[in-house]
Amino acid sequence: GQNIDQPTEMTATEGAIVQINCTYQTSGFNGLFWYQQHAGEAPTFLSYNVLDGLEEKGRFSSFLSRSKGYSYLLLKELQMKDSASYLCAVSLNQAGTALIFGKGTTLSVSS
Amino acid sequence: DGGITQSPKYLFRKEGQNVTLSCEQNLNHDAMYWYRQDPGQGLRLIYYSQIVNDFQKGDIAEGYSVSREKKESFPLTVTSAQKNPTAFYLCASSISRFNQPQHFGDGTRLSIL
What we know:
The complex is a heterodimer of chains A (111) and B (113). With 111 residues, chain A is an all-beta fold. Helix content of chain A is 0%, strand content 56%. Chain A contains no helices and eleven strands. Chain A has strands spanning 3-5, 9-13, 18-25, 31-37, 44-49, 53-57, 60-65, 70-75, 84-91, 100-101, 105-110. In chain A, strands 2, 4, 5, 9, 10 and 11 form a six-stranded mixed beta sheet that branches. A five-stranded antiparallel beta sheet of chain A has the order 1-3-8-7-6, with no helix packed on it. In chain A, strand 4 (31-37) and strand 5 form a beta hairpin. The model of chain A has no long low-confidence stretch (mean pLDDT 93). The mean pLDDT of chain B is 92. Helix content of chain B is 0%, strand content 50%. Chain B is mainly beta and 113 residues long. Chain B contains no helices and eleven strands. The A-B interface holds A 4, 8, 30-31, 33, 40-45, 48, 50, 87, 89, 91, 95-104 and B 30-31, 33, 35, 40-45, 48, 50, 58, 88, 90, 94, 96-99, 101-107, 109.
């Protein structure tokens, strides 16, 4: 079976740095995606990792270790608008195959 | 502007009734997907289609049906056989190549009357 684990909830304060972890055990792996979803809205694409290492995009960075089945999303200089759910999703080996999503991590940013 | 349009935004279903959720995209994407999201749950795959006139069941296809007669359209029917249909339904599309991000519509919230 496929299993993707993320913490259910996290809290942080404005201006801080937060790291959201994701571990996965899947039958095949081709890449890992991170999405942001505000309450009642559609998920929006943040980043993806195919190879081991860190991908940086402004305030957001994502890291992947394929040998450990582990990824994290790093959010710097937190803002109130970063309060949302963050979804980790794995792409399997077939092109066009739907992603396997974790249950998401709800991040609350306070002032 | 290119994007994915889901309609309606809110939908109510009566007992024994089939309802159809619309999903249209003008991104020229080959692949389209339907997900269901329940509170505290991740997105669960209902059906997906990689090409016109072809689709595959996802993890929770029972009680649902789809069609893919046009590249732009991938409607989802929630049948009376789906006993717990109340959820947030999300449609997505992507280029049908490795590691292409999926783009999502704004969702349809379905409730039981």
